[in-house]
Write a structure and sequence with these properties.
single chain, 3 domains, two-stranded antiparallel ribbon, mainly alpha, about 475 residues, two-stranded parallel ribbon, about 0% strand
Length: about 475
């Protein structure tokens, strides 16, 4: 039963007025064997998000929900109707692709998760107005407003159709694994809908900050100049006006993370480094510097202004003002940092996709190779060779304790950095991220050290010694 509150209301009405009353159970507008984008996205909303937003304590029989007016229907019935509205409006948008239909998807989402559309009305309507006029200001411009709703639908379809993706999401956010417990499965899906919706629908709201920058550079390029050193470009000043955290926000994040933050830049740098710092070998100070330079030094990012920085920063303010700082949690910060990373920050400051420094994934590959080779050769995980009392015979045989313990390690085929069983790539990644810094900094590729020496000294001369 997809819309349980509607069914409960129907049963209640039948007891009072007899058969032939509503509300009826909404029909599904997709084929159960269809695995296309539309069918998967609608099935996610129709079947997997059962109980979305329900108040489990709604037992007093009173009507706390709003229909045409407040107090007309049960609250859970209102939640079912909100979800049905989103399902129908998303269907309409996928069929049409029209910006007007994208607008109603935003409306439904804000009503469901921000409490009231009116609180975010100006932001959404400004974005809509910007998109309708932006194409006349730049020769190259796409409609990011409708694009974001397509991204939203795509994410729902991926979640619905991919068991491995659902399992990874549940594991990361602490939901019960598997799908036998339908209540837990519905709860995970509802969580995904809220925070994926936040990420996808608002990931491009910073484009109004990028547009004037691109206008100036585009005109400069048309005049014969090339983007790069010597270009005329715009940069923002007094950015702390939108990044500074207030007293209540500082207190909330201190409660969440156990450490203080003065600005959204510091908060974002912490969030990005916590997730990716170990894997890509960068520090929080490094990331803070990169984020801080985004609006004020676009020349350090190949002369591009990053709308993602402003999307994340602007959305933070919207969340704070609409739902209240006391309701912001770690998942909101995850969504904000995902938005921050989606454009150029990951490419030029994390992975260095432009070829300057793609070091960390190579180390990760080497770590995975080391783990799998040791498993295949019969090694197990453990540290007995470091903690056990050594027999006198062993010490006498090898002369000193350090050498004896190394020998014992080989005899036990045991290593504290090894893994047991057949770990998945994600498990090896997590294992690597949890290693002490001194272990992660070890040179697992000695041949690379020789290559660095050759490069440093412009060649290598080898002598034969008799």
């Amino acid at each position: 039963m997809a819309y349980t509150a509607l069914q409960q209301m129907k049963s209640r009405n039948e007891k009072a007025f007899g058969k032939g009353v509503g509300p009826i159970q909404p029909e599904r507008h997709y084929d159960s064997v269809d695995h296309g984008l539309k069918a998967m996205a609608l099935r996610f909303l129709h079947a997997r998000c059962e109980g979305l937003g329900f108040d489990v304590d709604e037992t007093d029989g009173a009507f706390h929900g709003t229909s045409l007016l407040p107090g007309q229907i049960p609250y859970n019935m209102q939640m079912d109707l909100n979800r049905l509205c989103l399902e129908r409006e998303l269907e309409k948008f996928i069929d049409s692709g029209a910006v007007e239909d994208a607008y109603t998807v935003y409306y439904c989402y804000l009503e469901m998760f921000f409490g009231h559309y009116g609180k975010s009305k100006k932001m959404v309507e400004l974005l809509s107005e910007f998109e309708s006029n932006g194409s006349s200001l730049l020769m190259k411009h796409r409609d990011h407003y409708s694009h974001s709703v397509y991204v939203f639908a795509l994410g729902l379809a991926i979640y619905e159709s991919n068991y491995a993706y659902r399992a990874a999401f549940k594991k990361f956010y602490g939901f019960e694994p598997g799908e036998a417990n339908t209540e837990a499965d519905h709860a995970a899906a509802c969580c995904f809908l809220e925070y994926w919706g936040l990420t996808s629908l608002f990931h491009d709201i910073g484009y109004p900050f990028e547009l004037p920058f691109e206008q100036v550079l585009s005109y400069y390029e048309v005049a014969g100049g090339k983007r790069g050193e010597g270009s005329l470009y715009l940069a923002y000043r007094d950015v702390d006006a939108i990044t500074r955290l207030g007293v209540a926000a500082k207190e909330q994040f201190l409660k969440l993370y156990g450490r203080p933050f003065r600005s959204t830049e510091e908060l974002f740098a912490f969030g990005v480094t916590k997730k990716l710092g170990a894997a890509y070998d960068f520090t929080e100070d490094y990331m803070l510097g990169k984020i801080h330079d985004k609006p004020i030094a676009p020349n350090t990012f190949n002369y591009f202004m990053d709308h993602a920085y402003f999307s994340a920063t602007r959305l933070y303010r919207e969340i704070e003002n609409s739902i209240g700082i006391e309701k912001i949690n770690e998942k909101h910060v995850d969504a904000l940092t995902a938005i921050l990373l989606h454009n150029s920050l990951f490419k030029f400051a994390v992975s260095f996709f432009n070829g300057k420094n793609y070091k960390r994934p190579l180390r990760m590959d080497e770590h995975e190779r080391w783990i799998r080779e040791h498993i295949s050769m019969g090694w197990i995980s453990g540290d007995v060779y470091e903690t056990a009392s050594l027999p006198e015979e062993l010490l006498n045989r090898y002369g000193d304790e350090k050498t004896a313990r190394k020998a014992l390690r080989e005899q036990l085929r045991m290593h504290k950095l090894a893994m047991d069983g057949n770990p998945k790539e994600a498990e090896i990644f997590a294992h690597y991220a949890a290693l002490p810094l001194e272990e992660r900094e070890k040179d697992y590729e000695p041949f690379n050290s020789m290559l660095k020496l050759i490069k440093k000294f412009d060649g290598l001369r080898i002598y034969k010694l008799d």
